[in-house]
Amino acid sequence: VAQGAVAQGAVAQGAVAQGAVAHPPGGEVTLSWNMELVARAWDPRLTPESEYRGIAWNGELSCLCQYFHPLYFPGMRDRSEEVQRDIMAVYNSPEVKNAVARLGGHCIIDFAWLG
Question: What DSSP assignment string belongs to the chain?
């Protein structure tokens, strides 16, 4: 998929496009569904500005952003280094690193930063 709008259209129509799947160079892509449901208890401390999403690739956290990326939270601007430091400390813990390794080193991880 060369353009985001094309991918959006394909997804909206229920199609799965192989070009939109990230895979290692030279590696084969196998499209299959492996769905899991994760439920968590309600916690009023989890506000939109406290939720972050990370992407692990080859066992390393290669991307970290706010889960609700279209929104701007002015109070978080001055805390970005603190948030990143705390999330990296959790990511680098043996429990998380082992879980990522069991997933093949490639996954999406949601974080809640409670300060």
Answer: --SHHHHHHHHHTT---GGGS---TT-----------------TT--GGGEEEEEEETTEEEEEEETTTTS--HHHHTTHHHHHHHHHHHHTSHHHHHHHHHTTT-EEEEEE---
**Distance (Å, rounded) from C-alpha 107 to C-alpha 65?**
15
pTM, 2 dp: 0.65
pLDDT digits 0-9 by tens, 38-80: 777 888 988 999 999 999 999 999 999 999 988 899 988 899 9
